[in-house]
Model the fold of this input.
Amino acid sequence: LAGLLTMAGLEVDAIRETRPSFTGVVAARIISIKPHPKADKLSLCEVVSTEGGTFSVVCGAGNIRSGDVTPMARVGAVMPNGLIIKKSLIRGEASEGMLCSEKELGLGEDETGVMILSPGLTPGCDLADALDLKDTVLDISITPNRADCLSIIGLAREIAAITGGKFSYPEIS
Done:
């Protein structure tokens, strides 16, 4: 696409790959939830991941149920704030990861509970791939003779023309 845009008279300054600011986070299905024996507001969750079997995770969220699919930061995962997830003991119980909220993953502002994913996601799949969080960004400089491409609609129309694709205006409400 960058080559086609350049031949159409647009300057592609850079091509950047974007990814989420976390690594080592997968989809995990909660198999069972039990109350933590030494803490009223914590639960012991058994989660399954096809990559590595079952894991025990201590969780403080109240919005989870057995059967839910949630993001799980595995041991060694790096969170957006730089935290590296380690196996730990939380009030005497082993926790082999962390069930994550949108805010903890940098995907939104909701921190009221664990992010609940589509039940159709395969446990163990990489969350960035499952949520299609990877992308390619083209930085385009518009030359003075291409004022028709000063907007996203103008660029979309140009791309449709040079690739033979279909263009349609967005629905405005």
